[in-house]
Amino acid sequence: MEKVIYDYEYAFKDNNNKDGAIIYCHGHNSKPEIFEMFQNYWTKTNYYALQFPGNNLVKPVKDHKLSVYQFAQLLINFIVDNGLKNVTLIGHSMGGGTISLAYKLRPDLIGKLIYIAPINKTTSLSKGKYKRNFEPKTLSEYHDFLRPLYYDFDALIANSEFSEEVKKAFDPERFSNPYIKELTMSMDASLYDEIESSLDSITVPTLLILGEKDGVIDSESCLKYFKEYVKNLESVIVPKSSHIIYLENWPVFIDAMDKFLNK
């Protein structure tokens, strides 16, 4: 088993091929395990998924800052420390910001970029249609928090098995602790300016995957925005999906991934 160097938890699948390795970067307050479906599926190159501090109750070490800038640096450090080259980066939601900033730091290390419903300048999470309560204190508020993430949350929550899983997963501390509050506060206008500058610098093949009815990211505006700033862009809007696209329409999602990764 390959030794992996990293300061936090990570997921790793050793496919005995470090050239063209894939690294997944999770979204706001999430964790590497959320993308386990792809980890189990992928067999061609080594697969890694990194936990970033401040998310999912993970305490920072070594004076690491709780910001997307820091996550980008941790990502680059991971690539260098583990001797990876020609890496494909996958970023979901906030992770899209992470891979953008990482690319600008060391474009020479990165071969392809995949964005899944990425945060971007066209969508504000703090006002208007996409305003969300990031600190649900009750199960009902947690349902409201989850609703924009799914294509038809009401149908899902009516299923007793899914409803029980949601109930077990709800932990108010996960949303109200000082770490996640600090991270959320750091995601200001200047961050989106830096992400935009990074997008404008991309020259490697890039895939943008969006949900048909995303309650967090405005898919139509995001697609138009990426076409304006990113060269060499491929894109797909996945039907009957929202923000967590791969959990809602895996066949269409993985078909787009396969076609892009196998080029």
Overview of the molecule:
The protein has 263 residues and is an alpha/beta fold. The protein has a single domain, classed as Rossmann fold, CATH 3.40.50. 41% of the residues lie in helices and 14% in strands. The protein has twelve helices and seven strands. Strands 1-3-2-4-5-6-7 form a seven-stranded mixed sheet, sandwiched between helices. The chain is globular. The model is unreliable at 126-130 (pLDDT under 50).
Total number of strands: 7
Q: In CATH, what is the class?
A: Alpha Beta
Distance between the termini: 28 Å
Shape: globular
Tally of structural domains: 1
Give the biggest sheet. Answer: 7 strands, mixed
Short description:
This protein has 263 residues and is an alpha/beta fold. It is 41% helix and 14% strand. The protein has a single domain, classed as Rossmann fold (3-Layer(aba) Sandwich), CATH 3.40.50.
Secondary-structure map:
Layout: E1 10-13, E2 22-25, H1 36-41, E3 47-50, H2 68-81, E4 87-92, H3 94-105, E5 110-116, H4 139-146, H5 153-157, H6 160-169, H7 173-176, H8 178-186, H9 189-201, E6 206-211, H10 219-229, E7 233-238, H11 245-248, H12 250-261
Parallel strand pairs: 2-3, 2-4, 4-5, 5-6, 6-7
Antiparallel strand pairs: 1-3
Helix pairs in contact: 2-3, 3-9
Please tag this protein with its features.
alpha/beta, 263 residues, 7-stranded mixed β-sheet, 7 strands, 12 helices
